[in-house]
Backbone:
């Protein structure tokens, strides 16, 4: 059995990233919290099956992902908000450009197929290697690389981004910051 106090501290340290991943999968804060709670309970109950020295975060993400899919199979009759229209009608859009861009990105991310969204979140947002993400998803590394590539391409299409020059501050803000750095 694992060292219970050390194992407990490791579980608690992983809660923020687990919640972020759960929120990205479920798109609902209450469901995300339930997923994280269920993941922690299952991990605690099965802590003897965790091998010390291996990646605890990947193990927890796998538990959370499996729990998410189990719950999805049980909830087939619920209304799905795949295009985000229900969510959009409940939220207030911020006036700042950065917040607006983030909101646009979230909507674009929600439009990706589930396997691509999952792959890009694991790699891009959570910092897993392709190998770790492939292990979490139970597929080949090449499959993960393909999903991430297709997700990036699709996000660029949805957001109408044609190159790296479209990232960062708008042209007016760029002029102000470059003028300030010269002065």
Residues:
């Amino acid at each position: 059995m694992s060292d219970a106090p050390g194992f407990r501290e490791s579980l608690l340290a992983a809660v923020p990233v687990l919640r972020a991943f759960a929120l990205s999968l479920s798109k609902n804060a209450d469901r995300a919290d339930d997923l994280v709670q269920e993941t922690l309970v299952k991990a605690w109950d099965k802590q003897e099956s965790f091998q010390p020295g291996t990646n605890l975060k990947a193990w927890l993400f796998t538990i959370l992902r499996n729990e998410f899919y189990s719950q999805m199979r049980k909830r087939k009759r619920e209304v799905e908000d795949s295009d985000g229209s229900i969510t959009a009608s409940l939220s207030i859009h911020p006036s700042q450009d950065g917040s607006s861009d983030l909101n646009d990105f979230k909507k674009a991310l929600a439009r990706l197929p589930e396997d691509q969204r999952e792959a890009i979140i694991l790699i891009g947002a959570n910092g897993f290697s392709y190998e770790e993400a492939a292990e979490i998803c139970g597929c080949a590394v090449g499959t993960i690389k393909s999903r991430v590539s297709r997700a990036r391409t699709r996000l660029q299409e949805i957001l109408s981004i044609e190159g790296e020059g479209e990232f960062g501050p708008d042209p007016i803000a760029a002029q102000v910051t470059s003028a300030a750095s010269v002065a």
